[in-house]
Protein backbone atom coordinates (compact mmCIF):
# COMPACT_ATOMS: atom_id res chain seq x y z
CA UNK A 1 0.00 0.00 0.00
CA UNK A 2 2.79 2.34 0.94
CA UNK A 3 4.57 1.33 -2.28
CA UNK A 4 1.47 2.11 -4.27
CA UNK A 5 1.12 5.54 -2.69
CA UNK A 6 4.77 6.20 -3.33
CA UNK A 7 4.36 5.27 -7.02
CA UNK A 8 1.32 7.49 -7.27
CA UNK A 9 3.27 10.36 -5.78
CA UNK A 10 6.00 9.91 -8.39
CA UNK A 11 3.36 9.86 -11.12
CA UNK A 12 1.83 13.08 -9.86
CA UNK A 13 5.21 14.75 -9.62
CA UNK A 14 6.23 13.84 -13.15
CA UNK A 15 2.93 13.89 -15.00
CA UNK A 16 3.08 16.63 -17.65
CA UNK A 17 -0.69 17.01 -17.54
CA UNK A 18 -0.56 18.15 -13.95
CA UNK A 19 2.46 20.45 -13.97
CA UNK A 20 2.21 23.90 -15.53
CA UNK A 21 4.66 24.21 -18.44
CA UNK A 22 4.24 27.99 -18.55
CA UNK A 23 4.15 29.13 -14.90
CA UNK A 24 4.93 32.80 -15.66
CA UNK A 25 1.96 33.06 -17.99
CA UNK A 26 -1.33 34.13 -16.38
CA UNK A 27 -4.35 31.86 -16.85
CA UNK A 28 -5.59 33.66 -19.93
CA UNK A 29 -7.03 32.48 -23.23
CA UNK A 30 -3.69 33.02 -24.99
CA UNK A 31 -1.97 30.60 -22.65
CA UNK A 32 -4.67 27.96 -23.24
CA UNK A 33 -4.44 28.47 -27.00
CA UNK A 34 -0.70 27.85 -26.97
CA UNK A 35 -0.90 24.79 -24.73
CA UNK A 36 -3.85 23.31 -26.65
CA UNK A 37 -1.93 23.73 -29.89
CA UNK A 38 1.17 21.99 -28.53
CA UNK A 39 -0.91 19.19 -27.03
CA UNK A 40 -2.79 18.59 -30.27
CA UNK A 41 0.29 18.39 -32.50
CA UNK A 42 2.13 16.08 -30.09
CA UNK A 43 -0.74 13.69 -29.37
CA UNK A 44 -0.34 10.67 -31.70
CA UNK A 45 -4.09 10.05 -31.56
CA UNK A 46 -4.94 13.59 -32.65
CA UNK A 47 -5.84 14.36 -36.28
CA UNK A 48 -3.46 17.34 -35.94
CA UNK A 49 -0.51 15.16 -34.91
CA UNK A 50 2.85 16.32 -36.35
CA UNK A 51 5.91 14.04 -36.38
CA UNK A 52 8.86 15.29 -34.31
CA UNK A 53 10.94 15.95 -37.47
CA UNK A 54 8.41 18.58 -38.54
CA UNK A 55 8.05 20.28 -35.15
CA UNK A 56 9.94 23.42 -36.11
CA UNK A 57 9.34 26.60 -34.11
CA UNK A 58 10.98 29.88 -35.12
CA UNK A 59 11.31 33.02 -33.03
CA UNK A 60 12.44 36.54 -33.69
CA UNK A 61 14.95 37.74 -31.08
CA UNK A 62 14.85 41.53 -30.46
CA UNK A 63 11.60 42.37 -28.69
CA UNK A 64 10.45 38.74 -28.79
CA UNK A 65 12.99 36.86 -26.68
CA UNK A 66 14.87 39.80 -25.16
CA UNK A 67 14.42 43.58 -24.93
CA UNK A 68 15.09 46.08 -27.69
CA UNK A 69 14.62 49.47 -26.03
CA UNK A 70 15.84 52.21 -26.13
CA UNK A 71 17.70 50.82 -29.21
CA UNK A 72 18.79 47.36 -30.40
CA UNK A 73 21.32 46.00 -27.93
CA UNK A 74 23.65 45.10 -30.79
CA UNK A 75 23.84 48.79 -31.74
CA UNK A 76 24.73 49.66 -28.13
CA UNK A 77 27.55 47.11 -28.36
CA UNK A 78 28.76 48.64 -31.63
CA UNK A 79 28.70 52.17 -30.19
CA UNK A 80 30.43 51.10 -26.96
CA UNK A 81 33.23 49.51 -28.96
CA UNK A 82 33.49 52.42 -31.37
CA UNK A 83 33.77 54.83 -28.46
CA UNK A 84 36.48 52.78 -26.73
CA UNK A 85 38.48 52.42 -29.93
CA UNK A 86 38.18 56.15 -30.67
CA UNK A 87 39.43 56.99 -27.18
CA UNK A 88 42.49 54.85 -27.78
CA UNK A 89 43.00 56.18 -31.32
CA UNK A 90 40.95 59.24 -32.35
CA UNK A 91 42.31 59.00 -35.90
CA UNK A 92 39.84 56.17 -36.62
CA UNK A 93 37.00 58.76 -36.66
CA UNK A 94 37.35 59.52 -40.35
CA UNK A 95 33.74 60.58 -41.06
CA UNK A 96 30.84 62.51 -39.56
CA UNK A 97 28.89 59.34 -39.01
CA UNK A 98 31.75 57.72 -37.06
CA UNK A 99 32.13 60.88 -34.96
CA UNK A 100 28.39 60.83 -34.27
CA UNK A 101 28.66 57.15 -33.36
CA UNK A 102 31.50 57.74 -30.90
CA UNK A 103 29.39 60.46 -29.26
CA UNK A 104 26.32 58.21 -29.13
CA UNK A 105 24.41 60.73 -31.23
CA UNK A 106 21.51 58.46 -32.20
CA UNK A 107 19.70 61.10 -34.22
CA UNK A 108 22.60 61.59 -36.64
CA UNK A 109 23.10 57.82 -36.80
CA UNK A 110 19.44 57.30 -37.69
CA UNK A 111 19.70 60.00 -40.35
CA UNK A 112 22.70 58.20 -41.85
CA UNK A 113 20.54 55.27 -42.93
CA UNK A 114 21.84 51.79 -43.64
CA UNK A 115 25.08 53.03 -45.18
CA UNK A 116 25.99 55.01 -42.09
CA UNK A 117 25.04 52.13 -39.85
CA UNK A 118 27.25 49.73 -41.80
CA UNK A 119 30.15 52.16 -41.44
CA UNK A 120 29.68 52.13 -37.66
CA UNK A 121 29.21 48.37 -37.50
CA UNK A 122 32.34 47.79 -39.58
CA UNK A 123 34.53 49.08 -36.73
CA UNK A 124 33.39 46.44 -34.24
CA UNK A 125 32.04 43.75 -36.58
CA UNK A 126 34.86 43.19 -39.08
CA UNK A 127 38.59 42.75 -39.30
CA UNK A 128 38.77 39.84 -36.89
CA UNK A 129 37.96 36.14 -36.80
CA UNK A 130 34.47 35.00 -35.86
CA UNK A 131 35.87 33.50 -32.64
CA UNK A 132 37.60 36.76 -31.65
CA UNK A 133 34.43 38.74 -32.35
CA UNK A 134 32.29 36.42 -30.25
CA UNK A 135 34.75 36.51 -27.36
CA UNK A 136 34.54 40.29 -27.50
CA UNK A 137 30.72 40.21 -27.47
CA UNK A 138 30.82 37.96 -24.42
CA UNK A 139 33.27 40.33 -22.67
CA UNK A 140 30.91 43.21 -23.41
CA UNK A 141 27.89 41.29 -22.06
CA UNK A 142 29.85 40.71 -18.83
CA UNK A 143 30.62 44.40 -18.30
CA UNK A 144 27.80 46.40 -19.97
CA UNK A 145 24.57 47.33 -18.18
CA UNK A 146 21.27 48.54 -19.61
CA UNK A 147 20.80 52.34 -19.23
CA UNK A 148 17.42 52.22 -17.46
CA UNK A 149 17.15 48.77 -15.84
CA UNK A 150 20.86 48.50 -14.94
CA UNK A 151 20.54 44.80 -15.80
CA UNK A 152 22.93 42.73 -17.88
CA UNK A 153 21.65 42.78 -21.45
CA UNK A 154 21.55 38.99 -21.62
CA UNK A 155 19.49 38.94 -18.43
CA UNK A 156 16.81 41.06 -20.14
CA UNK A 157 15.26 37.95 -21.65
CA UNK A 158 11.57 37.33 -21.17
CA UNK A 159 10.93 34.61 -18.60
CA UNK A 160 7.60 33.59 -20.23
CA UNK A 161 9.39 33.11 -23.56
CA UNK A 162 12.17 31.09 -21.92
CA UNK A 163 9.44 28.85 -20.54
CA UNK A 164 7.80 28.59 -23.95
CA UNK A 165 11.11 27.62 -25.62
CA UNK A 166 11.79 25.03 -22.95
CA UNK A 167 8.23 23.66 -23.10
CA UNK A 168 8.46 23.31 -26.88
CA UNK A 169 11.79 21.50 -26.68
CA UNK A 170 10.38 19.17 -24.01
CA UNK A 171 7.62 18.39 -26.50
CA UNK A 172 10.09 17.48 -29.24
CA UNK A 173 10.27 20.81 -31.07
CA UNK A 174 13.37 22.37 -32.53
CA UNK A 175 13.47 26.00 -31.39
CA UNK A 176 15.17 28.34 -33.89
CA UNK A 177 16.00 32.03 -33.72
CA UNK A 178 15.29 33.96 -36.93
CA UNK A 179 16.45 37.49 -36.25
CA UNK A 180 17.30 40.69 -38.06
CA UNK A 181 20.27 40.90 -35.68
CA UNK A 182 23.68 39.62 -36.67
CA UNK A 183 24.06 35.86 -36.66
CA UNK A 184 27.51 35.93 -35.05
CA UNK A 185 26.37 38.40 -32.40
CA UNK A 186 23.34 36.33 -31.35
CA UNK A 187 25.28 33.07 -31.29
CA UNK A 188 27.65 34.58 -28.73
CA UNK A 189 24.91 34.31 -26.07
CA UNK A 190 22.06 32.19 -27.52
CA UNK A 191 23.28 28.99 -25.94
CA UNK A 192 23.70 30.40 -22.43
CA UNK A 193 20.63 32.68 -22.56
CA UNK A 194 18.14 30.45 -24.39
CA UNK A 195 19.66 26.96 -24.61
CA UNK A 196 19.66 27.43 -28.38
CA UNK A 197 22.79 26.07 -30.09
CA UNK A 198 24.60 28.09 -32.81
CA UNK A 199 23.28 25.89 -35.62
CA UNK A 200 19.73 26.93 -34.75
CA UNK A 201 20.40 30.66 -35.04
CA UNK A 202 19.59 32.42 -38.32
CA UNK A 203 20.42 36.10 -38.56
CA UNK A 204 21.62 38.89 -40.77
CA UNK A 205 25.16 38.33 -41.97
CA UNK A 206 28.06 40.18 -43.46
CA UNK A 207 30.54 38.63 -45.85
CA UNK A 208 33.24 36.38 -44.41
CA UNK A 209 36.42 34.95 -45.82
CA UNK A 210 38.30 31.76 -45.11
CA UNK A 211 41.97 32.39 -44.39
CA UNK A 212 44.54 29.98 -42.91
CA UNK A 213 42.20 27.91 -40.77
CA UNK A 214 40.04 30.84 -39.64
CA UNK A 215 36.82 32.45 -40.83
CA UNK A 216 37.33 36.23 -40.87
CA UNK A 217 34.60 38.87 -40.69
CA UNK A 218 34.59 41.46 -43.48
CA UNK A 219 32.71 44.79 -43.58
CA UNK A 220 29.36 45.09 -45.32
CA UNK A 221 26.14 43.11 -45.37
CA UNK A 222 25.28 40.01 -47.42
CA UNK A 223 21.92 39.00 -46.10
CA UNK A 224 19.27 40.99 -44.21
CA UNK A 225 17.18 38.57 -42.21
CA UNK A 226 14.15 40.82 -41.83
CA UNK A 227 10.69 41.10 -43.42
CA UNK A 228 10.59 38.95 -46.61
CA UNK A 229 14.18 37.93 -45.78
CA UNK A 230 12.90 35.83 -42.88
CA UNK A 231 11.04 33.18 -44.94
CA UNK A 232 13.96 33.27 -47.38
CA UNK A 233 16.40 32.60 -44.53
CA UNK A 234 14.19 29.86 -43.11
CA UNK A 235 13.99 28.11 -46.46
CA UNK A 236 17.70 28.45 -47.03
CA UNK A 237 18.77 27.23 -43.58
CA UNK A 238 16.00 24.96 -42.32
CA UNK A 239 14.52 23.87 -45.64
CA UNK A 240 11.14 23.25 -44.07
CA UNK A 241 8.13 25.38 -43.28
CA UNK A 242 7.86 25.86 -39.49
CA UNK A 243 4.61 25.10 -37.66
CA UNK A 244 5.08 27.79 -35.00
CA UNK A 245 6.42 31.31 -35.51
CA UNK A 246 6.74 34.04 -32.90
CA UNK A 247 7.65 37.69 -33.38
CA UNK A 248 6.80 41.17 -32.18
CA UNK A 249 6.86 43.55 -35.14
CA UNK A 250 5.87 43.91 -38.77
CA UNK A 251 9.38 42.72 -39.59
CA UNK A 252 7.99 39.32 -38.59
CA UNK A 253 4.81 39.53 -40.66
CA UNK A 254 6.17 37.58 -43.64
CA UNK A 255 7.60 34.89 -41.32
CA UNK A 256 4.26 34.42 -39.56
CA UNK A 257 2.40 34.49 -42.85
CA UNK A 258 4.76 31.91 -44.39
CA UNK A 259 4.47 29.68 -41.32
CA UNK A 260 0.71 29.83 -41.02
CA UNK A 261 0.11 29.52 -44.80
CA UNK A 262 1.20 25.87 -44.64
CA UNK A 263 -1.23 22.96 -44.53
CA UNK A 264 -2.27 21.49 -41.21
CA UNK A 265 -2.04 23.03 -37.76
CA UNK A 266 -0.01 26.25 -37.54
CA UNK A 267 0.47 28.80 -34.80
CA UNK A 268 1.49 32.45 -35.13
CA UNK A 269 2.39 34.43 -32.02
CA UNK A 270 3.02 38.17 -31.72
CA UNK A 271 4.35 39.68 -28.50
CA UNK A 272 2.62 43.03 -28.00
CA UNK A 273 4.60 45.36 -25.76
CA UNK A 274 1.84 46.75 -23.55
CA UNK A 275 3.64 46.93 -20.24
CA UNK A 276 5.23 50.33 -19.61
CA UNK A 277 5.55 49.54 -15.93
CA UNK A 278 7.57 46.31 -16.03
CA UNK A 279 9.08 46.66 -19.51
CA UNK A 280 8.25 49.15 -22.30
CA UNK A 281 5.00 50.00 -24.10
CA UNK A 282 5.19 50.61 -27.84
CA UNK A 283 3.61 49.37 -31.04
CA UNK A 284 2.33 51.44 -33.98
CA UNK A 285 4.84 54.27 -33.87
CA UNK A 286 8.51 54.80 -33.20
CA UNK A 287 11.86 53.79 -34.57
CA UNK A 288 11.95 50.20 -33.31
CA UNK A 289 9.61 47.20 -33.19
CA UNK A 290 6.82 48.90 -35.13
CA UNK A 291 3.68 46.74 -35.16
CA UNK A 292 0.79 47.82 -37.36
CA UNK A 293 -0.16 45.13 -39.84
CA UNK A 294 0.23 42.43 -37.21
CA UNK A 295 -2.26 44.17 -34.91
CA UNK A 296 -4.65 44.89 -37.81
CA UNK A 297 -4.63 41.47 -39.47
CA UNK A 298 -3.21 39.10 -36.85
CA UNK A 299 -6.46 38.39 -34.96
CA UNK A 300 -8.36 37.56 -38.17
CA UNK A 301 -5.53 35.27 -39.17
CA UNK A 302 -5.90 33.46 -35.86
CA UNK A 303 -2.55 34.62 -34.52
CA UNK A 304 -2.10 34.86 -30.77
CA UNK A 305 -1.47 38.50 -29.81
CA UNK A 306 0.30 38.29 -26.46
CA UNK A 307 -0.63 41.21 -24.22
CA UNK A 308 2.48 41.45 -22.05
CA UNK A 309 0.74 43.38 -19.26
CA UNK A 310 -2.19 40.97 -19.07
CA UNK A 311 -0.74 37.62 -20.19
CA UNK A 312 2.57 37.63 -18.35
CA UNK A 313 2.69 37.39 -14.57
CA UNK A 314 6.43 37.87 -14.62
CA UNK A 315 8.62 39.53 -17.24
CA UNK A 316 12.27 38.99 -16.26
CA UNK A 317 13.87 35.86 -14.82
CA UNK A 318 14.35 35.93 -11.04
CA UNK B 1 22.79 -20.57 -14.54
CA UNK B 2 20.66 -20.63 -17.62
CA UNK B 3 19.48 -17.11 -16.70
CA UNK B 4 23.07 -15.97 -16.38
CA UNK B 5 24.02 -17.39 -19.75
CA UNK B 6 20.98 -15.75 -21.27
CA UNK B 7 21.98 -12.37 -19.80
CA UNK B 8 25.49 -12.84 -21.06
CA UNK B 9 24.14 -13.60 -24.53
CA UNK B 10 22.13 -10.37 -24.49
CA UNK B 11 25.20 -8.47 -23.38
CA UNK B 12 27.24 -9.95 -26.22
CA UNK B 13 24.53 -9.18 -28.73
CA UNK B 14 24.18 -5.55 -27.71
CA UNK B 15 27.71 -4.66 -26.68
CA UNK B 16 29.01 -1.98 -29.06
CA UNK B 17 32.56 -3.21 -28.57
CA UNK B 18 31.69 -6.56 -30.10
CA UNK B 19 29.47 -5.55 -33.01
CA UNK B 20 31.09 -4.07 -36.09
CA UNK B 21 29.76 -0.55 -36.77
CA UNK B 22 31.33 -0.52 -40.26
CA UNK B 23 30.70 -4.01 -41.71
CA UNK B 24 31.34 -2.98 -45.34
CA UNK B 25 34.78 -1.66 -44.48
CA UNK B 26 37.64 -4.16 -44.73
CA UNK B 27 39.82 -4.72 -41.66
CA UNK B 28 42.38 -2.12 -42.68
CA UNK B 29 44.27 0.55 -40.78
CA UNK B 30 41.91 3.26 -42.08
CA UNK B 31 38.92 1.53 -40.52
CA UNK B 32 40.75 1.21 -37.17
CA UNK B 33 41.77 4.87 -37.30
CA UNK B 34 38.19 5.98 -37.80
CA UNK B 35 36.78 3.73 -35.08
CA UNK B 36 39.54 4.63 -32.61
CA UNK B 37 38.88 8.31 -33.20
CA UNK B 38 35.14 7.95 -32.58
CA UNK B 39 35.74 5.83 -29.49
CA UNK B 40 38.20 8.33 -28.03
CA UNK B 41 35.99 11.40 -28.49
CA UNK B 42 32.90 9.64 -27.07
CA UNK B 43 34.58 8.02 -24.04
CA UNK B 44 33.97 10.32 -21.05
CA UNK B 45 37.14 9.01 -19.38
CA UNK B 46 39.30 9.85 -22.40
CA UNK B 47 41.40 13.04 -22.48
CA UNK B 48 40.05 13.51 -26.02
CA UNK B 49 36.41 13.41 -24.91
CA UNK B 50 34.14 15.80 -26.82
CA UNK B 51 30.67 16.74 -25.53
CA UNK B 52 27.77 15.70 -27.79
CA UNK B 53 26.99 19.35 -28.68
CA UNK B 54 30.40 19.64 -30.34
CA UNK B 55 30.28 16.34 -32.21
CA UNK B 56 29.80 17.87 -35.63
CA UNK B 57 30.74 15.85 -38.71
CA UNK B 58 30.55 17.36 -42.20
CA UNK B 59 30.61 15.53 -45.50
CA UNK B 60 30.86 16.55 -49.10
CA UNK B 61 28.19 14.86 -51.25
CA UNK B 62 29.27 14.31 -54.90
CA UNK B 63 31.97 11.63 -54.95
CA UNK B 64 31.93 11.33 -51.16
CA UNK B 65 28.44 10.06 -50.32
CA UNK B 66 27.19 9.26 -53.81
CA UNK B 67 28.68 8.95 -57.31
CA UNK B 68 29.64 11.83 -59.58
CA UNK B 69 30.64 10.14 -62.87
CA UNK B 70 30.39 10.66 -65.79
CA UNK B 71 29.16 14.14 -64.69
CA UNK B 72 27.47 15.54 -61.58
CA UNK B 73 24.04 13.96 -61.28
CA UNK B 74 22.48 17.38 -60.78
CA UNK B 75 23.70 18.39 -64.23
CA UNK B 76 22.12 15.26 -65.71
CA UNK B 77 18.85 16.29 -64.07
CA UNK B 78 19.17 19.80 -65.53
CA UNK B 79 19.89 18.45 -69.02
CA UNK B 80 17.06 15.90 -68.86
CA UNK B 81 14.61 18.64 -67.92
CA UNK B 82 15.95 21.06 -70.51
CA UNK B 83 15.60 18.40 -73.21
CA UNK B 84 12.02 17.56 -72.23
CA UNK B 85 11.02 21.22 -72.12
CA UNK B 86 12.66 21.89 -75.48
CA UNK B 87 10.78 18.96 -77.02
CA UNK B 88 7.52 20.44 -75.82
CA UNK B 89 8.48 23.98 -76.83
CA UNK B 90 11.59 24.39 -79.03
CA UNK B 91 11.30 28.18 -78.81
CA UNK B 92 12.87 28.07 -75.34
CA UNK B 93 16.25 27.29 -76.97
CA UNK B 94 17.24 30.92 -77.39
CA UNK B 95 21.03 30.50 -77.29
CA UNK B 96 23.83 28.22 -78.44
CA UNK B 97 24.47 27.02 -74.93
CA UNK B 98 20.82 26.04 -74.43
CA UNK B 99 20.81 24.20 -77.76
CA UNK B 100 24.00 22.40 -76.71
CA UNK B 101 22.37 21.53 -73.41
CA UNK B 102 19.27 20.10 -75.04
CA UNK B 103 21.55 17.93 -77.20
CA UNK B 104 23.60 16.81 -74.20
CA UNK B 105 26.73 18.25 -75.80
CA UNK B 106 28.94 18.25 -72.71
CA UNK B 107 31.96 19.67 -74.48
CA UNK B 108 30.18 22.86 -75.52
CA UNK B 109 28.61 23.11 -72.06
CA UNK B 110 32.04 22.82 -70.41
CA UNK B 111 33.40 25.48 -72.78
CA UNK B 112 30.54 27.80 -71.75
CA UNK B 113 31.91 28.14 -68.23
CA UNK B 114 29.87 29.15 -65.20
CA UNK B 115 27.76 31.63 -67.16
CA UNK B 116 26.64 29.00 -69.64
CA UNK B 117 25.98 26.53 -66.86
CA UNK B 118 23.81 29.02 -65.02
CA UNK B 119 21.81 29.60 -68.20
CA UNK B 120 21.15 25.86 -68.45
CA UNK B 121 20.37 25.51 -64.75
CA UNK B 122 17.96 28.44 -64.88
CA UNK B 123 15.53 26.43 -67.04
CA UNK B 124 15.03 23.67 -64.48
CA UNK B 125 16.11 25.44 -61.29
CA UNK B 126 14.11 28.67 -61.28
CA UNK B 127 10.65 30.03 -61.91
CA UNK B 128 8.90 27.73 -59.45
CA UNK B 129 8.47 27.34 -55.71
CA UNK B 130 11.02 25.35 -53.73
CA UNK B 131 8.37 22.69 -53.04
CA UNK B 132 7.50 22.35 -56.75
CA UNK B 133 11.19 22.07 -57.64
CA UNK B 134 11.82 19.37 -55.06
CA UNK B 135 8.79 17.38 -56.16
CA UNK B 136 10.16 17.50 -59.69
CA UNK B 137 13.60 16.30 -58.52
CA UNK B 138 11.95 13.38 -56.74
CA UNK B 139 9.95 12.53 -59.88
CA UNK B 140 13.18 12.56 -61.85
CA UNK B 141 14.93 10.31 -59.32
CA UNK B 142 12.06 7.83 -59.67
CA UNK B 143 12.34 7.62 -63.45
CA UNK B 144 15.99 8.37 -64.38
CA UNK B 145 18.69 5.70 -64.52
CA UNK B 146 22.46 6.06 -64.58
CA UNK B 147 23.95 5.61 -68.09
CA UNK B 148 26.47 2.89 -67.19
CA UNK B 149 25.18 1.22 -64.01
CA UNK B 150 21.49 1.51 -64.92
CA UNK B 151 20.89 2.16 -61.22
CA UNK B 152 18.68 4.83 -59.70
CA UNK B 153 20.89 7.84 -59.01
CA UNK B 154 19.87 7.92 -55.36
CA UNK B 155 20.81 4.23 -55.06
CA UNK B 156 24.37 5.07 -56.12
CA UNK B 157 25.26 5.98 -52.56
CA UNK B 158 28.29 4.39 -50.95
CA UNK B 159 27.29 1.69 -48.48
CA UNK B 160 30.46 2.21 -46.37
CA UNK B 161 29.67 5.92 -46.06
CA UNK B 162 26.04 5.17 -45.12
CA UNK B 163 27.44 2.99 -42.34
CA UNK B 164 29.82 5.73 -41.26
CA UNK B 165 27.00 8.31 -41.11
CA UNK B 166 24.83 5.94 -39.13
CA UNK B 167 27.69 4.98 -36.79
CA UNK B 168 28.46 8.64 -36.10
CA UNK B 169 24.82 9.45 -35.37
CA UNK B 170 24.62 6.44 -33.03
CA UNK B 171 27.60 7.95 -31.22
CA UNK B 172 25.87 11.30 -30.76
CA UNK B 173 27.26 13.13 -33.79
CA UNK B 174 25.34 15.51 -36.00
CA UNK B 175 26.03 14.53 -39.61
CA UNK B 176 25.92 17.45 -42.05
CA UNK B 177 26.24 17.61 -45.82
CA UNK B 178 28.41 20.48 -47.10
CA UNK B 179 28.23 20.24 -50.87
CA UNK B 180 28.98 22.28 -53.97
CA UNK B 181 25.66 20.92 -55.27
CA UNK B 182 22.45 22.90 -54.94
CA UNK B 183 20.96 22.95 -51.46
CA UNK B 184 17.38 22.46 -52.68
CA UNK B 185 18.42 19.63 -54.99
CA UNK B 186 20.22 17.67 -52.27
CA UNK B 187 17.46 18.15 -49.74
CA UNK B 188 15.03 16.46 -52.15
CA UNK B 189 16.66 13.09 -51.38
CA UNK B 190 19.02 13.55 -48.40
CA UNK B 191 16.48 12.39 -45.87
CA UNK B 192 15.53 9.20 -47.71
CA UNK B 193 19.04 8.41 -48.98
CA UNK B 194 21.15 9.35 -45.95
CA UNK B 195 18.78 9.98 -43.05
CA UNK B 196 19.99 13.58 -43.08
CA UNK B 197 17.22 16.14 -42.51
CA UNK B 198 16.98 19.30 -44.64
CA UNK B 199 18.30 21.54 -41.88
CA UNK B 200 21.61 19.66 -41.94
CA UNK B 201 22.22 20.18 -45.64
CA UNK B 202 24.43 23.09 -46.72
CA UNK B 203 24.87 23.63 -50.44
CA UNK B 204 25.29 26.15 -53.19
CA UNK B 205 22.25 28.37 -53.54
CA UNK B 206 20.62 30.70 -55.99
CA UNK B 207 18.58 33.70 -54.95
CA UNK B 208 15.02 33.14 -53.75
CA UNK B 209 12.10 35.43 -53.16
CA UNK B 210 9.20 35.27 -50.73
CA UNK B 211 5.86 35.73 -52.46
CA UNK B 212 2.36 35.08 -51.07
CA UNK B 213 3.22 32.29 -48.67
CA UNK B 214 5.77 30.60 -50.95
CA UNK B 215 9.53 30.77 -51.42
CA UNK B 216 10.24 31.03 -55.16
CA UNK B 217 13.47 30.07 -56.90
CA UNK B 218 15.08 32.75 -59.07
CA UNK B 219 17.83 32.32 -61.67
CA UNK B 220 21.48 32.94 -60.81
CA UNK B 221 23.81 31.99 -58.01
CA UNK B 222 24.21 33.63 -54.60
CA UNK B 223 26.58 31.31 -52.81
CA UNK B 224 29.04 28.74 -54.14
CA UNK B 225 29.62 26.15 -51.45
CA UNK B 226 32.94 24.90 -52.76
CA UNK B 227 36.63 25.35 -51.87
CA UNK B 228 36.97 28.33 -49.45
CA UNK B 229 33.18 28.62 -49.61
CA UNK B 230 32.86 25.43 -47.56
CA UNK B 231 34.32 26.78 -44.28
CA UNK B 232 32.41 30.00 -44.94
CA UNK B 233 29.17 28.03 -45.31
CA UNK B 234 29.93 25.94 -42.22
CA UNK B 235 30.54 29.04 -40.13
CA UNK B 236 27.43 30.74 -41.46
CA UNK B 237 25.09 27.76 -40.97
CA UNK B 238 26.55 25.67 -38.16
CA UNK B 239 28.51 28.35 -36.33
CA UNK B 240 30.94 25.82 -34.96
CA UNK B 241 34.11 24.18 -36.20
CA UNK B 242 33.40 20.50 -36.99
CA UNK B 243 35.59 17.76 -35.54
CA UNK B 244 35.22 15.39 -38.52
CA UNK B 245 35.24 16.36 -42.20
CA UNK B 246 35.03 14.02 -45.17
CA UNK B 247 35.47 14.81 -48.85
CA UNK B 248 36.96 13.47 -52.05
CA UNK B 249 38.48 16.35 -54.02
CA UNK B 250 40.53 19.50 -53.68
CA UNK B 251 37.21 21.34 -53.46
CA UNK B 252 37.15 19.90 -49.93
CA UNK B 253 40.69 20.91 -48.99
CA UNK B 254 39.71 24.12 -47.20
CA UNK B 255 36.93 22.30 -45.31
CA UNK B 256 39.31 19.59 -44.10
CA UNK B 257 41.98 22.16 -43.27
CA UNK B 258 39.48 24.31 -41.32
CA UNK B 259 38.18 21.26 -39.45
CA UNK B 260 41.56 19.82 -38.54
CA UNK B 261 43.08 23.22 -37.67
CA UNK B 262 40.93 23.36 -34.52
CA UNK B 263 42.22 22.45 -31.07
CA UNK B 264 41.75 18.94 -29.74
CA UNK B 265 41.02 15.74 -31.65
CA UNK B 266 40.09 16.22 -35.31
CA UNK B 267 39.65 13.81 -38.18
CA UNK B 268 39.95 14.49 -41.91
CA UNK B 269 38.84 11.85 -44.38
CA UNK B 270 39.33 11.81 -48.17
CA UNK B 271 37.67 9.19 -50.33
CA UNK B 272 40.12 8.23 -53.07
CA UNK B 273 38.40 6.74 -56.12
CA UNK B 274 40.67 3.82 -56.88
CA UNK B 275 38.15 1.22 -57.93
CA UNK B 276 37.57 1.16 -61.69
CA UNK B 277 35.97 -2.25 -61.43
CA UNK B 278 33.19 -1.59 -58.93
CA UNK B 279 32.93 2.20 -59.31
CA UNK B 280 35.25 4.63 -61.13
CA UNK B 281 38.96 5.36 -60.83
CA UNK B 282 40.06 8.99 -61.04
CA UNK B 283 42.02 11.55 -59.07
CA UNK B 284 44.68 13.97 -60.35
CA UNK B 285 43.21 14.68 -63.76
CA UNK B 286 39.86 15.18 -65.38
CA UNK B 287 36.90 17.49 -65.24
CA UNK B 288 35.36 16.27 -61.99
CA UNK B 289 36.53 15.40 -58.48
CA UNK B 290 40.15 16.41 -59.08
CA UNK B 291 42.33 15.44 -56.13
CA UNK B 292 45.93 16.67 -56.09
CA UNK B 293 46.68 18.70 -53.00
CA UNK B 294 44.75 16.26 -50.82
CA UNK B 295 46.89 13.34 -52.00
CA UNK B 296 50.10 15.36 -51.68
CA UNK B 297 49.50 16.91 -48.26
CA UNK B 298 46.75 14.78 -46.71
CA UNK B 299 48.94 12.00 -45.29
CA UNK B 300 51.33 14.46 -43.60
CA UNK B 301 48.34 16.25 -42.13
CA UNK B 302 47.17 12.95 -40.65
CA UNK B 303 44.11 12.71 -42.87
CA UNK B 304 42.70 9.28 -43.64
CA UNK B 305 42.95 8.62 -47.39
CA UNK B 306 40.33 5.98 -48.06
CA UNK B 307 41.42 3.60 -50.83
CA UNK B 308 38.05 2.48 -52.18
CA UNK B 309 39.42 -0.67 -53.82
CA UNK B 310 41.28 -1.78 -50.70
CA UNK B 311 39.26 -0.33 -47.81
CA UNK B 312 35.73 -1.05 -48.97
CA UNK B 313 34.47 -4.62 -49.19
CA UNK B 314 31.24 -3.43 -50.72
CA UNK B 315 30.51 -0.23 -52.62
CA UNK B 316 26.75 -0.05 -53.27
CA UNK B 317 23.93 -0.99 -50.91
CA UNK B 318 22.42 -4.43 -51.54
CA1 LIG C 1 11.70 42.09 -33.26
CA1 LIG D 1 33.09 16.01 -54.22
UniProtKB/TrEMBL annotation, chains A, B:
Gene3D superfamilies tied to this protein: HAD superfamily/HAD-like (3.40.50.1000)
Position of the signal peptide: 1-19
Protein name in UniProt: Nonspecific acid phosphatase
InterPro entries in UniProt: HAD-like_sf (IPR036412), HAD_sf (IPR023214)
Gene: napD
Pfam family, one: HAD
Keywords, ordered alphabetically: Signal
Taxonomic superkingdom: Bacteria
SUPFAM superfamilies registered for this protein in UniProt: HAD-like
